[in-house]
Structure formats: C-alpha cells, structure tokens
Amino acid sequence: MTSEGADASRDDQPDSALAIAAAVRSGERTAASVVEVSLGAIAARDPELHAFLHVASDHARAAAAAIDETVRAGRDPGPLAGVPVALKDNLCTRGVPTTCASKILEGWRPPYDATVVTRLQDAGAVVVGKTNLDEFAMGSSTENSCKGPTRHPMDPTRVPGGSSGGSAAAVAAGLVPLGLGSDTGGSVRQPAALCGVVGVKPTYGVVSRYGLVAFASSLDQIGPLARSVADAAVLFEVIAGHDPLDSTSLDEPVPRVTRVLEAGVEGLRVGVCNELVEGTSPDVARRVREAAEDLAKAGALVEEVSVPEMRFGLSAYYLIAPAEASSNLARYDGVRYGLRVDAPDVAAMNTATRTAGFGAEVKRRIMLGTYALSAGYYDAYYAKAQRVRTLLIRAFERAYERLDVLLGATSPTTAFEIGERVVDPLAMYMSDVCTIPSNLSGHPAMSVPFGTGEDGLPVGVQVLAPALHEEPMFQVAAALERAAAARAAAVPGGEGRR
After folding, report:
1. Which of 16, 33, 88, 431 is catalytic?
2. 491 — pLDDT class (breaks 50, 70, 90)
3. Is the Cβ–Cβ distance between 175 and 38 less than 8 Å?
4. Host H or E run for residue 361
5. What kind of architecture, by CATH, is found in domain 3-316+382-490?
6. How far apart are CA 357 and CA 351, in angstroms?
C-alpha cells in the first residue's frame, strides 16, 4: 500500500501518538497528512467545543512539511515525529497569539518560545494551536475565559474542568493526540479526570517553566495530557530535563518512565489515602476502591493510610496562590505590552487598564492575595499558610517512608454543568481539594481514567508519589490503565470504553 493509501485508510482512526510517530518515521504516513486529519477534526468539532483559541494552520503545515523532508533525507525527526500537539494558551509560542484567555493580553505575540515548545519541536511534534483556559489559569472549569467556556466532549452542557480544559477537551475529543497544560492546583489532573484522559503533574522543577506565563511561581508546573499512559510517558520524557533559563529547574536525571510501563506492580507499596476518598461522591469513591482492589490482585501491597494534614491544603493554597498571583500580575499595567486604556495620568491609566483587562475571578484573587501580603496581615495569613505547607510536606515524607505511592480520587465529582458553580466561588474551589496537596508539596501526581460515574461520565483515579519518583507513579498508572480496560471489556458492549 502506498503512503497515500495508508494515510487515507487511517484518516478516521484516533491513533496513539506513538503509532503516528512510528508511521511517520518509517515513511508509512506523512506528517502533512497527519496534520490535515487533525486540522479537519478541529474544523468539524471545535465550533461546538471551543477548545481552541487559535488554530495555527499555516505554522503546522510548514512544520509538517519540514518533518517530511527530514524523513525523505533519511534523518530521524524525533520521537514525536509528525504528532499534532495542542498548547494551553499560557505557553509562549513565538509569533503565535498567547493571551492566557485574558483581554489584557489580547493579540500579544511572544518574541520567543517556551522551553517546552522548543523541546516539542526538536522531538518532531507539530503545534497545531493554542487552547482555551480559565483566565491566567485561575479556575476549575474553563468558564473564566474572556472568549467563553469550553464544553465537555461527551456532554456539551457540562464543563471539561480547568484550568487546562481546552487541552483536555481537545485530546479527549480526538482533535489532537497530545496536549500540554499547566498545573498550579490541579489544572492538568482535574480536567484530565473529567474528560477521561491521562494528565500528569511532574515534580516541581523537572519541567522548565521558562515561557510559561506565571500564575503562582512556587506552584506552577507544566504537564502532559494524553489518551494513554504510554503517550503521556513519551511526552513527559520529551519536555523534562534541566534548563538553565529557569532558576527553579532541577539539575537531575530525567526519570525514565517509558521503561517501567510493562513492569507490573508486584511488591509495590500502595496507600489508599482516606483524605482523597472521603467526601467524594459515592460513584467516584467506588472507582477508587475498585482501582485499589485491582492493584492488590496484580500483586501490589495495598493498605489504608491517613494524611490528616491534607485537610488544610485548600486553605493554605488559597492564601499562597493568590499572594503570588497578585505579585506576578502586577506587570500587566498597560505600559509595556498588552491592553492599554488611555487616561489623564499614569495611575489612572493603570487602574483603567486593569479594570477593563482582568475578569472577575482574576480580580478576586489579586485582591485576596494583596490583602494577605499587606502590612499587619502578612504573618497572620501568608506566613501561617507557608507553615501549614511545611507541615504538609513533612506529613507526605512520613507517609512515603513506608509507601511507594498514594492512591485517591482526582476530582470529588464527575463533570458538573456549565454555570452550576460560577456564582459560588467556594464550591468551585472545592473542585481542586484532591489535587492541591501535591502542588503544595512539589511532588508528582497523575490522573488515570478508571471507569465512569453513575451519569456515564469519566472518573479519574489519582496516583501520587515522592519527588523525582515518577517511575513508580507511571508503573502504577499503567497497571490501572490495564485494569480499567479489563473491566470495560468484561461488560457487554463495554469494549473500547474507558
């Protein structure tokens, strides 16, 4: 069969990233045809989903043509050859609009690429566009976008989660095989759980933050979204590694997660964390218990564990993150770039620009953070929250003295309806109660699809691990993926369902 015939026969198949890259590298498929399939899928479904803020068609076609030329010349284009990737629109991409879904950055085109974007391109991946998000990554539903919400691929009346909801929805809908998001309090893992895909938050410092528009600098981390653990593993290895351009980047060997995916879980010590199960909806809790049972059947040593300090994570986070946000967002003043609203003097111009440029949730967090850092309140709020953070880190360390990983829910519920929590910020903040602890500790965590809830929507099970222990985390995640597939296959008509 010619490469053109092979391409045509596969146009309607949601191939894995690994399968696409192998076919492009061997010449069985062309990167150009793969990109056209992705662009066609975006054109067909994105008017309904609104996962993308910008589709970089010309950029993607030019990159694909260069990859095909590399293959024809007999050179290896990289491990992600020809694979379309969607980038959350807070990752700087040279010459491509990068807005953070905010009016204050509308039309801004960065003069440089984020390190992760450079590494993707060096690996042969093709960036097809920038995806929707909660403004400046502040939200749990992708409803706080100045361009309007993204919709869930399985039920357009529901949210895809947030803040990386655009990337998660694009991957779940088959528009792209891979996506990148940022995770400050769960913003990769929570939408991954709600959309039924794999989402990874690496150890803080393992993936460079250079070129990521900052929300909360001590918490932000870039992570993969994929339809399989294997695809997520390859993407993780591509983007991870030391970067001298990021002062918080760890100069440590990249965990080689792809080599452990078939290792099984025999003898691994798994703790089912009560605080990540209690308080979740009954159907979510049931899936976590089933996941634990399947790991035990596969040979893991499973036990119940309690980390009571986790209960303070949400309160500490919503002091630390807004405080850092109020500092980071001070740079948007109408002077150097972005929106400017003219006024009689500089102070009035600053006020008018920020009033018009920021949405309600961003303003809420700036005010909360500024208050927490203000004279007379710093010690009572911000400093105390940092002490709580230290207590949480020490509690994790004690748990990991006898456990390899922790297991729990990723999100307390399945996807909720659009508009359901917008008027109740506290209810929205509770969406991240299971994911925030790993951001405060800096440890890696990932969400793996594991069945559905009573509403038929995806449930994600979360695997947490100590710093730089991505290997056992991926090892357990791969076992969960196999167990979920076996459960789906055992149900009549369930083959192929997560």
Report:
1. 88
2. confident
3. yes
4. helix 360-373
5. Alpha-Beta Complex (3.90)
6. 10
Q: What is the 3-state secondary structure (H, E, C) of 448-483?
A: EEEEECCCCCEEEEEEECCCCCHHHHHHHHHHHHHH
Handedness of CA 313, 316, 322, 328 (dihedral sign): negative
Catalytic residue among 187, 208, 249, 438: 187
Bond into 163 cis (ω within 30)? yes
- Give domain limits for the chain: 3-316+382-490, 317-381
Tell me what the mean pLDDT of segment 485-495 comes to. Answer: 82
User: Which among 16, 163, 167, 447 is annotated as catalytic?
Assistant: 163
Instruction: Quote the longest CA-to-CA distance of the chain.
Output: 74
For residue 337, the model assigns a pLDDT of 87
Active site residue 374: no
Per the CB < 8 A criterion, the answer to whether 389 and 440 are in contact is yes
Can you say whether residue 495 is alpha, beta or left, with left for phi > 0 and alpha for psi between -120 and 50 degrees?
beta
pLDDT band at 3 (very low <50, low <70, confident <90, very high): very low
The predicted-structure confidence for 266-325, as pLDDT tens digits, reads as follows: 999 999 999 999 999 999 999 999 999 999 999 999 999 999 999 999 999 999 999 999
Residue 88 annotated to the active site: yes
**pTM check: above 0.85:** yes
Instruction: Please indicate whether residue 297 is annotated as part of the active site.
Output: no
